[in-house]
């Protein structure tokens, strides 16, 4: 009896709750049965607390307002902020990566850049920057074919596209590293990087860049001429695409069933249920978790 009591106390359950369960099941009950009963009691008390809270709030509602006033706070917030471009993060597009991806790695397709820019403009983004090396302004060559090159000039006039510097020294082209421009601007502006590149070399340069790239990299696919970013940029337990692109989330996340074990769950990020207390934790890969535990 005392062993079961001590074990349940270590898990954070109240003494009177444990005593009530042991009196109900008997001192000879298996520890798994005791824990199951404790979890059931905990869920029951939580649901009763929520129902009592909802009943008290329902009596405080004013009478006779317009329907919009009594809408849920999430919906009213969404109405206010949904079309507000100030709530959208700046977008920094890796032009070379997007153009080569649209060209199936065989050529530099400037139309792919235009498709990506149009997608973000339709979403309401106004702060969009595309980086492309300056030597892409040169005439197309058989070893480096470029299609729809006039799009680059058009986007440059619209102040969306920026050419990274390059020059010729004694007949040899000297090119600045455009990836560093992309990551630096996105980091300084607290924006989103649009690329299928992981920038592993830049992740090793600065630890703050590593964390930023892991949390703010938006990958994509092209289906013919359709630009398609994923609906879950950071995995199925991460934010939706709409909230990923916003500074403040608007659409409520996770309508999944909450975990019955709550904070006592030991499955970690592998748990298939929703954990509200883990919403702000970064989604680390299994390899990163192992490295951190090895350091500890």
Automatic annotation (TrEMBL):
Gene3D superfamilies, A to Z: 3.40.50.11980
Q: Where is the composition biased (Low complexity)?
A: 48-59
GO terms assigned for molecular function: hydrolase activity; mRNA binding; RNA endonuclease activity; zinc ion binding
| Region Disordered, residue ranges | 45-65
Source organism (scientific name): Colius striatus (Speckled mousebird)
Tell me the cofactors it needs: Mg(2+)
Q: Which GO terms describe its cellular component?
A: cytoplasmic ribonucleoprotein granule; nucleus
- Keyword Zinc set for record: yes
Keywords associated with the record: Endonuclease, Hydrolase, Magnesium, Metal-binding, Nuclease, Zinc, Zinc-finger
What does the similarity note say?
Belongs to the ZC3H12 family.
- Protein's name in the database: Putative ribonuclease ZC3H12B
Query: Mind telling me which Pfam families this protein's record contains?
Result: RNase_Zc3h12a, UBA_6
The segments annotated as C3H1-type zinc fingers are: 253-278
Show the InterPro entries listed in the entry.
Rege-1_UBA-like, RNase_Zc3h12_NYN, ZC3H12/N4BP1_RNase_Reg, Znf_CCCH
Give residue ranges for domain C3H1-type. Answer: 253-278
């Amino acid at each position: 009896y005392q062993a079961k009591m001590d074990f349940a106390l270590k898990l954070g359950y109240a003494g009177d709750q444990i005593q009530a369960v042991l009196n109900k099941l008997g001192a000879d009950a298996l520890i798994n049965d005791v824990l199951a009963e404790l979890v059931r009691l905990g869920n029951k008390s939580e649901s009763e607390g929520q129902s009592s809270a909802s009943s008290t709030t329902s009596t405080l509602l004013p009478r006779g307002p317009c329907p919009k006033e009594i809408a849920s706070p999430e919906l009213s917030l969404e109405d206010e902020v949904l079309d507000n471009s100030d709530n959208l993060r700046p977008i920094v597009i890796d032009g070379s990566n997007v153009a080569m991806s649209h060209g199936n790695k065989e050529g530099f397709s400037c139309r792919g850049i235009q498709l990506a820019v149009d997608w973000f403009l339709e979403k309401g983004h106004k702060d969009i920057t595309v980086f492309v090396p300056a030597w892409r302004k040169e005439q197309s060559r058989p070893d480096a074919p470029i299609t729809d090159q006039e799009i680059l000039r058009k986007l440059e006039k619209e102040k969306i596209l920026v050419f990274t510097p390059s020059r010729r020294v004694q007949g040899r082209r000297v090119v600045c590293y455009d990836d560093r421009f992309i990551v630096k601007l996105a980091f300084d502006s607290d924006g989103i990087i649009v690329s299928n590149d992981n920038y592993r070399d830049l992740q090793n340069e600065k630890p703050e860049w590593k964390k930023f790239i892991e949390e703010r990299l938006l990958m994509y696919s092209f289906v013919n001429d359709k630009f398609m970013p994923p609906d879950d940029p950071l995995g199925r337990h991460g934010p939706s695409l709409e909230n990923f692109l916003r500074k403040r989330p608007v659409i409520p996340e996770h309508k999944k069933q909450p975990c019955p074990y709550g904070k006592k769950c030991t499955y970690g990020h592998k748990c298939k249920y929703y954990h509200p207390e883990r919403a702000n934790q970064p989604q680390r890969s299994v390899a990163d978790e192992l490295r951190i535990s090895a350091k500890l």
